[in-house]
Design a protein that fits this description.
Elements (H helix, E strand, L loop, with lengths): L25 H16 L4 E3 L9 E4 L11 E12 L2 E5 L9 E5 L2 E7 L5 E7 H14 L10 H16 L1
Antiparallel strand pairs: 1-2, 2-3, 3-6, 4-5, 6-7
The structure holds nickel (II) ion.
Length: 167
């Protein structure tokens, strides 16, 4: 296992469409292990292969620090097959250090993917997990969260926060 360098800024690898994985072989499994280790070392809750310079459709996510019942996942060739609801949430990105923003995302998603054991699976996520899955799958399509920021959403959440603060 190895901690790999995370690509940062507006570099080409973060802006290209990643390629589907044809076979889950030892190289892919090693890459997934390295992605988990790199994500943990950076205190992240999600990481996509392009972020470590590999243009393949692989993501990992681990929100168990916030939700202990939610196990870490590694998804190969993930595809969102259902999305519903809408919510605002604050996001950052390991590839955009220092930047945070309010992003409007579906509150529930179902993802079809290949698992590291070679089996196909449907996985559903709500709220934070849904957000991480959408954020990481966006990375596979060259999309960064800063592309999705809308001024009206920033204002909306500020109002929400002000309301909560006054309760
Ligand atoms: Ni990111």
């Amino acid at each position: 296992m190895a901690v790999l360098e995370i690509q940062t800024g507006d570099v080409p690898i973060l802006r290209q469409k990643a390629k589907p994985v044809k076979h889950v072989d030892d190289n892919v499994l090693r890459l997934i292990e390295d992605m988990f280790e790199t994500m943990a070392a950076a205190c992240g809750i999600g990481l996509a292969a392009p972020q470590i310079g590999v243009p393949k459709r692989i993501i990992v996510a681990d929100i168990s620090q916030h939700f202990p019942d939610c196990p870490p996942v590694a998804l190969i060739n993930p595809l969102i097959t259902e999305a519903s609801g809408e919510e605002l949430g604050e996001e950052g990105c390991l590839s955009l250090p220092g930047l945070r923003g309010i992003v409007r995302r579906a509150s529930s998603v179902t993802v079809h993917a290949l698992l590291p054991n070679g089996e196909e699976a449907e996985l559903s996520g709500n709220h934070l997990m849904a957000r991480v899955l959408q954020h990481e799958i966006d990375h596979l399509n060259g999309i960064l969260f800063i592309d999705l920021l809308k001024p009206e959403d920033q204002i909306l959440l500020e109002q929400e926060e002000a309301k909560e603060a006054s309760n």
